Amino acid sequence: MAYSDKVLDHYENPRNVGVLDKSDPNVGTGMVGAPACGDVMKLQIRVNEQGVIEDAKFKTYGCGSAIASSSLLTEWVKGKTIEEAGKIKNTQIAEELALPPVKIHCSVLAEDAIKAAIADYQTKAGTKGSKADAA
Amino acid sequence: MKKPIYLDYSATTPVDPRVAEKMCQHLTPDGNFGNPASRSHPFGWHAEEAVEEARAHVAALIGADAKEIVWTSGATESDNLAIKGVANFYGKKGKHIVTCKTEHKAVLDTCRQLEREGFEVTYLDPEPNGLLDLEKLKAAIRPETILVSVMHVNNEIGVIQDIAAIGKIARERGALFHCDAAQSTGKVPIDVNAMNVDLMSLSAHKTYGPKGIGALYVRRKPRVRLEAQMHGGGHERGMRSGTLAPHQCVGMGEAFRYAKLEMAAEIERIRGLRDRMLNALKDMPEVYVNGDLERRVAHNLNMSFNFVEGESLIMALKDIAVSSGSACTSASLEPSYVLRALGRNDELAHSSIRFTFGRFTTQEEVDYAAALVKEKVAKLRELSPLWEMHQEGVDLSKVQWAAH
Fold it and tell me: Taking the model in full, what pTM does it have?
């Protein structure tokens, strides 16, 4: 299968590979996919007090398109608010990377990953918030 | 060293230059270009001589008589002709066929078609090492079983089935025995009589001959009958009509002649290369060899690199030409059905790479490939959340995954 130059670039030089501290209350972690399906993405974001994503890291088990989709996503979400990041659509990722039809699911997984990371962050933040409210 | 390095000899082999040279003598106006079915002039007679000489070489490699060889377009056609031909001819006697889940798609899909036509097919599970349990085979054969079809060497994992024993079991129970030997010619000695084979599919392009030609061995004593699947001028004793391609026949014949002459020495050289690769890789953490290592052809190494996905590994290994699963199915996203049939879990099936070595593989190439594999697996594991979890001691089988 022929990969686009952008997929190859992200695959060969993946951006923002790594891990953020899961226990940090400002870090949201999203892990989506399943080994049996051939891809698992772990995406982490660190959100500052203004709700802006300061840092993003990923690790991905999957094909080149899955790795490229998650690498691209980390680049895109940095500097965005969580609201803006939550609006990123898989079609934008697929278009940017020129993914072939059989690889569209990789971009879907990336969209799921950022949504899961945001949800995790909000749950943590919400827990803090509700405690404050209850008090 | 030329790159990419070709380590996919089970997908196809290059034509041996000695074979190609001989083939070229059967094409052009100053060559032997006639139609072997032309009876009225020397162009036809000479072409027929060349085709018959080639037929004898093919027969010799498998211990058959030249009269028992039917030319086809390749092993897929041979499998179709053997299985459908037997089913159509002997269908009145019984409508049951026994085969194995790890057969090539040319056998499995042909059987599926026969099921749609009213035949019943038993697909046996292999043991975890890839080999058939002969007791399970015996139990599966019934009075109405007309055909048993089991491949000699598996294309993905290279394991060698006990063909002689399987053939004996089939014969004792009155069923015909078809064996797909596309992957075993020139790799394992073959004797259709000692192995009790009634029908055998052969391919030229896995044994340094050209693509586009194969053959079907059809036993004459006792005579095995087939219903033709290709009708026309009645070539090949009515079993397969169509003008023969003498350059292709000669290519296959010449390739098989060299295979017979050089096999013994070649296998040992290639085994040395394969073992060199295995020794270089086997001490890495979480790597598994798929399929039995002892009852296996010398040129195959199929390994799973746990926590690394196969397609991305192949992408990382762009300087070496290898395959994940088999080339015939690698366009799909499904993990290898052969590895699944061995009971390998999906992760390990997704992580498998097949390295196959051959006549033109050098030690320098093997050393380069082994170093590259080690480097890239380590790099991809750094990228892999599964490797990270494994390092942290998480049992991945206990994790609730969001399957998609």
Answer: 0.90
